[in-house]
Amino acid sequence: MTNPILITGCGVVSAIGNNKAETLDALLDNRSGVGELVYLKTEHKEFPVGEVKMSDEEMRKLMNIRDNAITTRTALMGMIALDEALKDAKITPEMIPNIGFISGTTVGGMDMSEQFYLDYVNNEKHKEYIAVHDCGSCSEMTAEHFGKFAFVTTLSTACSSAANAIILGANMIRCGEADIVVVGGSECITKFHLNGFNSLMILDTKPCRPFDATRAGLNLGEGAAYLVLETEESAKKRGVRAQAILSGYGNACDAFHQTASSPDGEGAYRAMQEALKLADIQPDKIDYINAHGTGTPNNDLSESQAVKRLFGENVPPMSSTKPFTGHTTSASGSIEAVFCILALQNGFLPVNLNWSQPMDDGIVPVHQQVKKELKHILCNAFGFGGNDSSMLISKPRFDELNDRPMAPEPVEEPLYVLSAKQISVQQPLCEDWMTQPVDYQTPFNRSIDPSFKDYISPIEARRMGKILKRAIATSKEAIKTSGLETVDAIITGTGYGCIENTEFFLEALSKDGEQMLSPTYFMQSTHNTISSLVAIQTKNHGYNVTYAHKGISFDSALQDAVLQMRLGKINSALVGGHDELTPTFYNILKKGGMMGQYDEMCGEAAVSVVLGTKSDNCLCKLVNFKMLHKPSMDKLKAIAADFKADYILTGISGNHKGDEAYLKETKELFGDAKLLKYKHIFGESFTSSGIGVYVAAQCLKAGKIPTHLFVNPQEATEKKPSNILIFNHSDGNNYSLTLLEA
Amino acid sequence: MDELIYTLKQQIIEALNLEDMKPEDIDENASLFGEGLGLDSIDALELIVMMEKNYGIKLQDPAKGKEIFKSVAVMADFIAKNRTK
Questions:
Q1: Quick one: chain A helix, strand, coil %, rounded to 5?
Q2: A463: nearest CA in chain B?
Q3: A29-50 burial code (b ≥16 CB/10 A, e <16)
């Protein structure tokens, strides 16, 4: 039984074109889109960039969006690429509710936040943009232009975000979660990361020259690209053809440094090796490698080493297309995947522009265009923190692929919650909240922190924000108490990422201007810093990704772990949900209607859960899980029927205006089940659904549900609970259901 | 020079968030990176920002930092010769 993953359509926008046809033209003509800054308002005119050649207004016009609509540049570019991808794959609007959308971005709505930050802090102006600051709302804005997708989530692993979105989409298809998933990423250039990369001193003032002896850094670019992934059966039924096959992919963590790659390219080596292994293809079958090749001295040397380790003397033709587009950061994985599809379809090797002198110990890239038939292309995308991914894109030749099972069929076996630890507004790293919950009268509270000295050395801790320390402490405790030596994967969810350092950087940018910004603030501001630091601290080279999608960030991470266990790819995972809040950001988000409405209690949450396939010493079983985006009540009811439980842990906060509707909906779906709550003591936070899983797991382990968790305290009982469903309806758009059993 | 060395130590502690340290704890002749204080490449970048802010010295090539940040004494010497404020 084979299940190839077909790519039945794609769309792209970047500095070299607003669609596939223009892109192909530029690639064949060796025409770069990198040049002087035009659209971004910045003092740094000295850096060449690869901007998409349209203003926001022009993009809105192209997408038929009214002039005064709330949009972000990342979402607009995303819409343009998504529009082309959907049309290319002949997807009609009525198909959308059965299709998933997975996008990668890191800047989200930062282009607006960096303009209006002081207004957000000081007055009421532009407050309507606050709600589109985060990565998740950016993906939803892109998706909603086309209808209601079945599920929507967001990967944020810096420069490998889009590649990891592609990997998740493929895993969902292989597990039978969907027949069609649209995957990719979008990212506009912002002052925030232009200055951030500048503070790291990795920008070149000349056009970038990957793999050249004189290379001196990267040029930033922007753009978006999406691929339509589809099962063979679905494509046959619809009468659409595969443009290419996603025949393999790999993700590994370099676990070396937050902003630098290891000298031997360990993460990159593992990611590429895994992609080949999944496809069961020998290295000598690879016809071309589209390198990550940013043009920084560090990346190109490290990537060269990784490639040489894997291919030995016979390195296939390789080039970086970043001199065409600049480094399109979070979108680069899908943009370059589209370049690879174009190369496959048209039989040519894209040129590594601007290259003239070989570097010491490096590969010699393709520097003259070669026309030849290509069958298998490896496409690399690496991110800060060593989040390295590689994709294998092949020419559709079913006769050859048919006898190559991509992977075993997914298995439906129960998974186990081996351990769960939290740091929150309750006593940290313990279950005191069961009997003696800390009581709060104020709407916003910061976490109670343990002493971090036991987990992180002071020299390492000095640059870390609170969120990072809490993540490391809960992760180390969770692994320690799981009974496992190490975990196969580290998967993290965070709604807003490292807010504290983001705030420091935004404030400095807004008040002091674009000079002399702190590299520490910048490098600690990216969402995937959390997951990659945990990997560095625990020396873990396994699968490593970060989700940043509002109230289902933790849930998305949990889903990823479940999928990969079903595919037999991993046997254990550390799933984290981490969010912090500062007084300033609390007030901003309250102003933007994002949280703290009606003075509900808000908090911070750090929760780390270890999932495994073996039951030894577990807290409870995880028997079912599902995530939904804007489902109809009928669809929700149909799903709920598979999630019957005695107890439903709801996300009501106790004093929110929406509580009543939440409870009514829960009763309509689950009938007489007894309702529980947890946010009355833990507060609201973006990853509080992780706390929900923690609370339910600990109650099942203890064989008792504390009376104060019951919505109706009269229903409290001494009876041992046998199951609890965590029903998360987080932000009006997204739902998740997690069923745990004793 | 002693005054500059002392001020520099204070500025290093602040820039690198070396919370538990006092200027007296830093040996001006000991190496800042590797064996000495155990600082890394991000600290070097922070020191470049700090030198620009406080002394108006713009370092274009991060690799140059390796020589300048050998020790506090070497750094002070470089600053004394190149400062613009």
A1: 40, 20, 40
A2: B17
A3: eeebbbeebebbebebeebbbb
B20 touching A (Cβ < 8 Å): yes
The residues spanned by each domain of chain B are: 2-82
Q: How far is CA A455 from CA A467, A474, A477, in A?
A: 14, 9, 9
The model's confidence at residue A732, banded by pLDDT at 50, 70 and 90, is confident
Beta pairing, strands A415-423 & A348-349 = unpaired
Residues of B in contact with A260 (CB under 8 A): 41
pTM listed for this prediction: 0.96
pLDDT at A386: 94
A458·B17 Cβ contact <8 A: no
Instruction: Name the phi and psi angles at A273, rounded to 5.
Output: -60, -40
Identify the three-state secondary structure at position A648: strand
Confidence (pLDDT) at B19? 79
Residues 6+ apart with CB under 8 A from B81: none
Which candidate in B45, B66, B69 is best for mutational testing of the A interface (most A CBs within 10 A)? B45
* HEC per residue, B8-67: HHHHHHHHCCCCCCCHHHCCCCCECECCCCCECHHHHHHHHHHHHHHHCCCCCCHHHHHH
Alpha-carbon separation of residue A257 from A119, A200, A261, A306, A733 (angstroms): 35, 13, 7, 16, 36
Q: What is the largest CA-CA distance in chain B?
A: 32
CB A244 within 8 A of CB A341: yes
CB contact under 8 A, A260 and B20: no
Mapped onto helix, strand or coil, the DSSP state of residue A652 is coil
Q: B54 in contact with A at a CB cutoff of 8 Å?
A: no
Neighbours of A404 (CB within 10 A): 13
CATH top class, domain B2-82 = mainly alpha
Q: Which strand (E) or helix (H) includes residue A608?
A: strand A605-612
- Whether the CB-CB separation of A8 and A228 falls below 8 Å is answered with yes
The residue of chain A with its CA nearest to that of B39 is A459
Percent of chain A with pLDDT over 70: 98
Residues composing chain A:
742
**What CA–CA distance (Å, rounded) separates B42 from B71?**
16
Nearest CA in chain A to B18: A462
Per-residue DSSP letters for A485-519? S--SEEEEE-SS--HHHHHHHHHHHHHT-SSS--H
Structure confidence by residue, pLDDT tens digits, B33-51: 876 677 888 889 999 999 9
